[in-house]
Amino acid sequence: MNQSEPQMTETPIDADSPPNDVDLKQRVNESLLKLGYVQAKFVSETAGKVTIECTDTDRNDQCVMQVAVRLLPGVTSVAFVASEGAR
Predict the structure, then answer these.
(1) Phi then psi dihedrals of residue 84, to 5 deg
(2) Which of 2, 33, 37, 56 is the most exposed place for a label (fewest CB within 10 A)?
(3) Phi and psi dihedrals of 21, rounded to 5?
(4) Mean pLDDT across the chain, nearest whole number?
């Protein structure tokens, strides 16, 4: 049998275009959950800077979260804020 290669039917994502905020929020939260950071969550995004709310995370955990989130298209930097309940 002669099988042809599958044809790409979807348009590839442009890495330079900023993603929709709702999609970005979902992708950030999913990435954090996959890494086991259940207390961390997306707060906001402004001009590629994502803010994450979290408690009880040391510098090593923040570095891991930062790398994971910066791998997402449209993210240029990551900031961390303490949870409201921790203050």
Answers:
(1) -60, -40
(2) 2
(3) -55, -40
(4) 83
User: Which residues partner with 83 through β-bridges?
Assistant: none
In degrees and rounded to multiples of 5, residue 15 shows phi and psi of -65, -20
Q: What is the model's pLDDT at position 83?
A: 75
Q: What angle do CA 49, 61, 87 make, to 5 degrees?
A: 75
CA distances from 45 to 11, 61, 78 (A): 25, 20, 9
Q: Residue 68: its pLDDT value, please?
A: 97
Per the confidence metrics, is the pTM higher than 0.85?
no
Distances (CA, A) of 17 to 2, 8, 11, 29: 39, 20, 13, 20
Asked if residue 85 has pLDDT above 90, the reply is: no
Residue among 64, 53, 74 nearest 31 (CA): 64
